[in-house]
Amino acid sequence: MATTTPKTSPEVGGMGHSVKRKEDPRLIRGKGNYVDDVQLPGMLHMDIVRSPYAHAKIKKISTEKAMKVPGVLAVITGETLAQFKLHWMPTLMSDTQMVLPTDRVMYQAQEVAAVVATDRYAAADGVDAVEVEYEPLPVVVDPFKALEPGAPVLRTDKPGKTDNRIFHWEVGDRAGTDAALKASDVVVKEQIYIPRIHVASIETCGCVADFNKINGKLTVYMTTQAPHAIRTVFALVAGHVGLSEEKIRIISPDIGGGFGGKVPVYPGYVIAVAASVVIGKPVKWIEDRMENLQADSFARDYHISAELAAKKDGTITALKIKTVADHGYADAAANPSKFPAGLFSICTGSYDLKNAFAEVDGVYTNKPPGGIAYRCSFRVTEAVHAIERMVDVLAQELKMDPAQLRMKNFIPKDKFPYKSALGWEYDSGDYPAALKKAMDIVGYDALRKEQAEKRKKGELMGIGISSFTEIVGAGPSKHFDILGIKMFDSCELRVHPTGKATARFGTKSQGQGHETTYAQIIAEELGIPAAHVEVEEGDTDTAPYGLGTYASRSTPTAGAAGAIAARKVRDKAKKIAAYLLEVGEDDLVWEPGKFSVKGAPQKSKTIQDIAFAAYTNHPQGMEAGLEAVDYYDPPNLTFPFGSYICVVDIDRGTGEVKVRRFVAVDDCGNIINPMIVDGQIHGGLTMGLAPALYEEITYDEQGNVQGGSFIDYLVPTAMETPKWETDKTVTPSPHHPFGAKGVGESATVGAPPAIANAVVDALSHLGVRHIDIPITPEKVWNILKEKDAAL
Amino acid sequence: MSQHTIQVNVNGALQKAEVPARLLLVHFLRENLRLTGTHIGCDTTHCGACTVLLDGVPVKSCTVLAVQADGREVMTVEGLERDGKLDPIQEGFYQEHGLQCGYCTPGMMMTGYALLKANAKPSEEDIRKAISGNLCRCTGYVNIVKSVQHAASAIAAAK
Amino acid sequence: MIPASFDYHSPKTLSEAIDLLSRHGDGAKVLSGGQSLLPLLKLRLGTASHLVDIGKVPGLEYIREEDGFLKIGGRTRESTLEASDLIRKKYPILADTAAVIADPLVRNLATVGGNLAHGDPANDHPATMLALGAVVVATGPKGERTIPIGKFFTDLFTTALSHDEILTEIRIPTPPPGSGGAYVKLERKVGDFATAASAAQLTLKGGVVEKAGIGLTNAGPVPVQAEKAEAFLKGKKLDAATIAEAARLAAESADPSADRRGSVEYKKEMARVLTARALAKAAERAGGA
């Protein structure tokens, strides 16, 4: 298995070592500190009253009964917040959304009022006792209907708004692509719907807001992936009520899974903060699972119309995509501000195609805000699903093997850095090697033979490929900002006299293992054992400013900052070593952990010697201490890639799809910790399996959510999840300080099309070309029935 | 609403408390006893993050009333480590990277611990079946299976 | 996820429990395993002002054969049923059923009596008990009475139990030699209620059906006994054709509602497919297909 060969010893634990995780000792003892574990003296509990209607005027909110419930202290409504002008807030995409309504509700489960009580049982009783009178209004849940002239305008709060379009965004050469489509031998066209799904991390969202009336400091323990951004947003939004950024502390402690769902600012957080500011006591708000599944953390919901054109010999010539993006009632996702459709323009994929055009129309509907970057960078799952499905559709049309079609069109290894038709410069890639490896591992040719034999007997078996390119590590300041804040990230590294180190970062792990992997980066650069590097993240009082962890950006940005900061430290260490060894800097040679004199290796100083000297015997004229800060502005994004092959068998009686095998070959460049990378892949594959076969959030005509509890939102258990087979290729990033790319999301991106392609492949001889995910047994059975192939 | 005096043996220590009838066992453990290692992940008895042992049997403590535990024994994740030594199940999860965010982990480990007491040599299929009431979003279950297998081997080797 | 307030009682004897049910009327509910009742109360979908916990009442958990019947105590845990050697060897249809109820953790607390008394057509035991021709033993203020399973399920979430009766035992006639049964369930994922499920219990002699019992889960407002299919099979040689016809007839008895688990058409077709599979497996276990 190709992986980074370690340059350091196992005791140092630099890159390439599967160092056991430093976060585990507390977590396996049940001594993690998650937000709901936080208990502060005098802490109150908040629970939220939610709308049963998707669109309604609020006629009256009666709080008398609720106030009589023992333990209930206050009921907060939109009117309460309006006094402080906090009833509306900006979203991360510079739209606006309600904190609490004063006029109407716009989605089912929307927050309508909040009850503050002495304990959570009383708060629940209080919520039950709040009486709200609604006057239902016409509901708009179909984004196409929402765009029709004459559709009810939903955002009546926006002066001058006469339709439900949020944005129109386009990229590429429309005329050139149209011409190329016309001139091509073959054009295939499909409608692809990627439904709304939900992050469903096992920990829901919540916070403990603690405002100290005496010193005016607000501390918020919060399930957030981006604590600094939250702090700045709170300062900007609530500056007028006295919150000041130097007196706001956001603490993101242990987080039970984020996956993008814990990036946005949800109304619950703001209400809890307001409650604490007014009451002067800590206020805890933890949403329960059904609230979580119905009100926040939604992703996808893209209606894609795609055309892919090729010559008869299979050379792909053009791609044209038109997408309607259902955002719900506010554009509240966290995309980089110049990219309302995220990085969807990666849709040209792994293929060398010259003509491409993509356009996306964002639409308002009566649904909760969607568009979370759910383990997908930004919209990369949608883009990759589209191109990988279309390549298979094209293969079917041309009667060409889908592996062969891909090999024919891959961007060749020697063409990197590669400028795509939609403007991205892919840093590095070796697509044929990854696909070949996957094919060898799975035994592709033998499987095709088996499929042919089975077809003669009427048995249904399919093989699906996904050769994806991801785009992660947002991002270069030239193009990437969120609410104007550039998407750099940071590391502050301090080496102590006894040779140990503390390293603080602007990102925030929610299970990715930064306490271990970041220590390994420092160990690699300085030779200080990873065990001696204490990594801290998540407390805005101490951590350097960063944009947080999501979109697989941590290793590409903060990890890079850690390496650069360590190199700055090493530069200073070299000066001190030269001084101690009484030689010039040019006479020194570095190996992990020490400088020695060229030609006289016994004359050396370890990094520990140097650290001690930095405080006790530094050269005159040099500042004491041994530390550095780096704010890293990545020169480009990184482009991890891979090839996945999925083998399925279909039960002709029930339509059930069984994943027999799934081989994933991933390339994320140089690997810090192989064990952790594999863990990320396993988890990502499972989060790709889920929407491919099981998960979906839908709404009926009245905007009632379907799938709003774990009864119907089908998170796979260990029984549904196959035994993932994983392997790697290693194609370093040429621009990253240690050649790494992000990896946390590759598998969520690459897996769904591999599975969808496998099922379609199993049925292609019956004339099936496309099936939308989730591919449920009923969907398959309906197709079998239609094709007279059901048992 | 009735109040009840209960006596529950939790991790070997007898706990006496007066609780309302409707208090869920998981809240009793987390809030009354401040044993926050047991977690809450859902409201429909699906996720298993709240799994504890009740008289040695793994159950979802969100779907048990504290009063039902009166006179009985409860073991939580905090009870796995004994005399400063990790239980083989904890060691297994540590060695095999069986956790990422750690939120489902206490429940998973309690289920794994109970499985190994009932079946010292579980197959992969046995393990997946045993944990089918415990949801994980981070690990994809592969390393959780390996963690339980690691613990099984360690327990067998110690005999 | 927090229930409304209620009073809780933990009687030490059966008569004390029954007495509490009588005294507190409709607001009192039996707490057995609690794995159906507590989730309802937590979501505030059901109400109870008094919970009568029978957890400390002795003599309600047992599995034994006696007088030509398999007798299971009402508070017997599903996990006990699943692990019982007697059940697995002689009544595998019950082992099949117990093994697919919810998930292993829920099964450690859920009880057979509760699964039946809840009156939910989506629960798994009702169909199996219909196929087995079981008899429910209800104990109330006036003592014990028996209720044939065919008369036990009266409406959605409603059984023939009167308000102050407790399901203390379920009796299954021990099948004669040449018998076999199976329960086959289609679920969207482990832990779900059935999209469709079929219980088939057969007694064969020389390949001919002497007796057939077929029950369907989640196929209507009450658990369904596929009587037409049962009648068709009686006296017939069991082969692929008769299995297919019986399965077709069973599907006709199904009256499922459309929901996220499937359309009416899909669920009825699955009742057919699963009945065929259950019959084939039952025949195999009976020792002669």
Which key terms come to mind for this protein?
heterotrimer; B: 159 residues; alpha+beta; Ubiquitin-like (UB roll); DNA polymerase, domain 1; 2 domains; 5-stranded mixed sheet; globular; C: 289 residues; Uridine Diphospho-n-acetylenolpyruvylglucosamine Reductase, domain 3; Enolase-like, domain 1; 4-stranded antiparallel sheet; 11 helices; 34% helix
The strands making up the biggest β-sheet of chain B line up spatially as 2-1-5-3-4
Largest interface, C-beta closer than 8 angstroms, per-chain residues:
A-B, 57 and 58 residues
Q: Find the CATH superfamily of the largest domain in chain B.
A: Beta-grasp domain
Uncertain segments of chain B:
none
CATH class of the largest domain in chain B: Alpha Beta
Query: Could you describe the largest sheet of chain C, including whether it forms a barrel?
Result: 5 strands, antiparallel
Rg of chain B, alpha carbons:
16 Å
| Secondary-structure element string of chain B | EEHEEEHHHH
CATH topology of the largest domain in chain C: Uridine Diphospho-n-acetylenolpyruvylglucosamine Reductase, domain 3
CA gyration radius of chain C, whole angstroms: 19 Å
Global morphology of chain C? globular
* Discrete helix count of chain C: 11
CATH architecture of the largest domain in chain B: Roll
What share of residues are in beta strands of chain B?
Answer: 15-25%
Structural class by helix and strand composition of chain C: alpha+beta
